[in-house]
Design a protein that fits this description.
The structure holds 2 protein chains of 2 kinds.
Chain A: E1 4-7, E2 10-13, E3 18-25, E4 31-37, E5 44-50, E6 53-57, E7 64-70, E8 73-79, E9 87-94, E10 106-107, E11 111-115
Chain B: E1 3-5, E2 10-14, E3 19-21, E4 24-26, E5 33-39, E6 46-52, E7 60-61, E8 64-69, E9 74-79, E10 88-97, E11 102-106, E12 110-115
Classes of the chains: A mainly beta, B mainly beta.
């Protein structure tokens, strides 16, 4: 596998279900991100992990719970979601330097989530 | 906070012709990066080109080039010799660095159609 992979690619869940999205990066990066892409809205940054520590949480509801066990893996645990949470969830990774720098983010193919 | 504006929701270009997609941004920072990403129907977000704000020379990647006007806070993408495979959503993005993480702010996107 190369680049950034995400599983599953499609997920349908009920409002009472618990599910998890998985992201894995094979680029040797140290930072990982979760974005939400809804119809007719800009991509919204949800969470940022740098060196396995969460550095950003953009006021995301607690029904979304991220986990970053190491710098290559990122999970998004989902529970008691709402229909408006249906969206494309994109994972990205970058090599973040301590002084900024380019930090180009590379994206995975996304998980299309439908909440019934 | 930074904002990114793409004022063209849709554009159309004939195959082999040239098209320019517009992007403006607002920031008080002096050093930053700008990106153009492409999202084809597969939904994979693909990096097209990047520009460092402190570099006066416009970035170029094969048929893709930018016109970066720092004073005007403008960052347009020119696609030359358009191909059918260029049809996609194009997103302009601004990268800021908080000291602990890099963050991308995206525009709302421009849908590019390529016709025969």
């Amino acid at each position: 596998e190369t680049g950034v992979t995400q599983t599953p690619r499609h997920l349908v869940m009920g409002m009472t279900n618990k599910k998890s999205l998985k992201c894995e990066q094979h680029l040797g990066h140290n930072a990982m991100y979760w974005y939400k892409q809804s119809a007719k809205k800009p991509l919204e940054l949800m969470f940022v992990y740098n060196f396995k520590e969460q550095t950003e949480n953009n006021s995301v509801p607690s029904r979304f719970s991220p986990e970053c066990p190491n710098s290559s893996h990122l999970f998004l645990h989902l529970h008691t979601l709402q229909p408006e949470d249906s969206a494309l969830y994109l994972c990205a990774s970058s090599q973040d330097g301590t002084s900024g720098g380019e930090n180009t983010q590379y994206f995975g193919p996304g998980t299309r989530l439908t909440v019934l | 906070a930074q904002t990114v504006t793409q004022s063209q929701p849709e554009m159309s270009v004939q195959e082999a012709e040239t098209v320019t997609l517009s992007c403006t941004y607002d920031t008080s920072e002096s050093d930053y990066y700008l990106f153009w990403y492409k999202q084809p129907p597969s939904r994979q977000m693909i990096l097209v080109i990047r520009q460092e704000a402190y570099k006066q020379q416009n970035a170029t990647e094969n048929r893709f080039s930018v016109n970066f006007q720092k004073a005007a806070k403008s960052f347009s993408l020119k696609i030359s010799d358009s191909q059918l495979g260029d049809a996609a959503m194009y997103f302009c993005a601004y990268r800021s660095y908080t000291g602990t993480a890099s963050k991308l702010t995206f525009g709302t996107g421009t849908r590019l159609q390529v016709t025969l």
